[in-house]
Amino acid sequence: MLKFIKHNLTSIDGIEIYPIISLVIFFTVFVGMFIWVYKMPKTRTQELSNLPLEDDN
């Protein structure tokens, strides 16, 4: 099954750029989220970490 898909994809010109673009997008989002979480105030981090333990019915 995979060889049929692979054969069709190799016949498309310029297809080799898409894995590179997807890797760059993934890496950018991952680094952006890491920076956002790192710069988050510690009080907000504590508030979010205690959220599952609260009993607000």
Structure summary:
By secondary structure, this protein is an all-alpha fold. It contains three helices and no strands.
List the helices and strands and how they pair.
Elements (H helix, E strand, L loop, with lengths): L1 H9 L6 H23 L2 H9 L7
Percent of sequence in beta strands: under 5%
- Give unreliable regions as ranges: none
Task: State the separation between the terminal residues, measured CA to CA.
Answer: 52 Å
The total beta strand count reads: 0
Gyration radius over CA: 21 Å
Q: With helices defined by DSSP (H or I, 4 residues minimum), what is the helix count?
A: 3
Shape: elongated
Mean pLDDT: 86
Secondary-structure-based class equals: mainly alpha
Range of helix content = over 70%
Order of helices and strands: HHH
| Largest sheet report | none
Q: Can you walk me through this structure?
A:
The protein is mainly alpha-helical. Helices cover 72% and strands 0% of the residues. It contains three helices and no strands. The termini are far apart. The mean pLDDT is 86.
Search tags:
57 residues; mainly alpha; 0% strand; elongated
